[in-house]
Amino acid sequence: MAVVSLVVELKDKPGQLAKVIDPVSKCKGNIISIVHRREETTAGKVPVEISIEIEEKNVKKLLEMLKSQGVVVKRFNEERLTSTTSIMLIGHIIHTDLANTIDAVDRTGFAEVVEMHISMPCLKEPSTAMVTISAVSEEGLKNAISRLKDVCEKKGIMVIEPLE
Amino acid sequence: MIRIAIFGFGAVGRGVAKVLMDRRRMEKLIGEYRVVAVADSKGSIVSECVNLKEVLEIKEKKGRLPKGMSVEEIIDEVEFDVALELTPTNIDTGEPGLTHIKKCLKKGSHVVTSNKGPLVVAYKELSKMAEKSGVKLMFEATVGGAMPVIKLIKRDLAGNKILSIKGILNGTCNYILSKMEKEKLPYRVILSEAKELGIAEANESYDVEGIDSAAKLVILANSLMDMDVKFEDVEVRGITNITPEAFEIALEKGYTIRLIAEVDGSTLRVSPKLIPLSNPLCIHGTLNAILIKTDLAKEVFVIGRGAGSTETASAVISDLIEIYSCEVSR
């Protein structure tokens, strides 16, 4: 499951939202929020931002169905990061190119390091860090963690994962 | 009349002997019995009915039993119905326990053991031998000390498919980690303290490197999940690199750290893990715990004392009773 948000333009009159909701329900999506951006109304059209939880494989079908309903999708694919976990690193984290270690996650494109807490008690002693990683899906998260583990193994950094 | 031979007279052997001296407790459960031989690595006492009180006194005074028949000679020459194999563990060769157990099973006597080595090295072979000879091989004491695991899963969860087992199987590691968590002191400091208290062995590597946990995991996988794995199949990482800061940082996210042994039908791993504070495996001190997932019963959680003379004797005695209560009900 991933959360996608899309912005559609709807005429400001009754019955318009149904054109969006029906396809979402047919694609087994779950609507998390609907925001009418009335302040941005232009030429009688209201941008509506909709967040949907949906299987990744159904996203394309949803976009096609919306198009066939005559709904203009103004923006799409502002994917939200939905899966998050924290993992611990112990070792010489700073002196083994921290930026490069984090980059193992960030350059995936589907996951990023969103938070990091490092404790460095002494210069030559190993550091301890808690890294929080967010990804667009559970699989993405697993993939990102396995890439991070590979990099850490090469650098001699111990990785402690949460109990599944 | 049940004739019992005791091989190995260390902490566990002496713990078992003390329970066997309590005839009123035991005879209700297994009927009449006699101990016909007690042996340690240096000597033995063999008689029609060994006086356990005297043997315990000799062992305490001299630190060893008097010169006598070796364990192998006893197996060859003395008649007994059940052997309690309580010699020290060697997970590389399984010896001397492996030879003892094989000879006993071949001879047709039941075996109850607290010795991990033989089972890690040759579980499948030994269980086939027992089956062939029509005798029982019981080993509750090898995993989790007094904590019921083997019989719990084999008997009380019979019919279930075991999907995964995750556990804390080494009390020394759990003591060190939970103490580091509480006192924010480095690993080395807590380790020395644990040695002084007798919680850690003089050579601690067997515990803190995860070797002991891995050996127990192999026994669980082979005996309860119908796997056929060896010690080398376990991915093992110990606790020696964990920093005191690790606990503080983990706590900010609602975690602590424990050494977890886990098997899920394909992978076997012993490694430190972040444990949510709300998880039942977040236990303290020298306790052991195990979280079993099955297809029918779903999650079952057990906690108990994983070591100690009386505690391990409890598991040995329960195996002994299991063998003979079956025979009585038949």
Which tags fit this structure?
heterodimer; A: 164 residues; alpha+beta; Alpha-Beta Plaits; 2 domains; four-stranded antiparallel sheet; 4 helices; 8 strands; elongated; B: 330 residues; alpha/beta; Rossmann fold; Dihydrodipicolinate Reductase, domain 2; six-stranded mixed sheet; 13 helices; 21% strand; globular
How would you describe this protein?
The complex is a heterodimer of chains A (164) and B (330). Chain A has 164 residues and is an alpha+beta fold. In chain A, 28% of the residues lie in helices and 37% in strands. Chain A has a four-stranded antiparallel beta sheet, with helices on one face. In chain A, strands 6-7-5-8 form a four-stranded antiparallel beta sheet, covered by helices on one side. In chain A, β6 and β7 (127-135) form a beta hairpin. Chain A is elongated and about 65 Å long. Chain A starts with a strand and ends with a strand. Chain B contains 13 helices and twelve strands. Chain B has helices spanning 11-20, 23-30, 52-62, 71-77, 97-107, 116-133, 150-156, 171-183, 187-196, 205-208, 211-224, 244-252, 309-329, and strands at residues 2-7, 33-39, 44-46, 82-85, 110-113, 137-138, 162-168, 235-236, 255-263, 268-276, 287-294, 298-305. In chain B, α1 (11-20) crosses α13, α4 (71-77) packs parallel to α5 and α8 (171-183) crosses α9. Chain A binds chain B through residues 86-88, 90-91, 117, 119, 121, 125-126, 128-130, 132, 158, 160-163, and chain B through 166, 237, 241-243, 245-246, 248-250, 252-253, 255, 257, 260, 271-276, 279, 281.
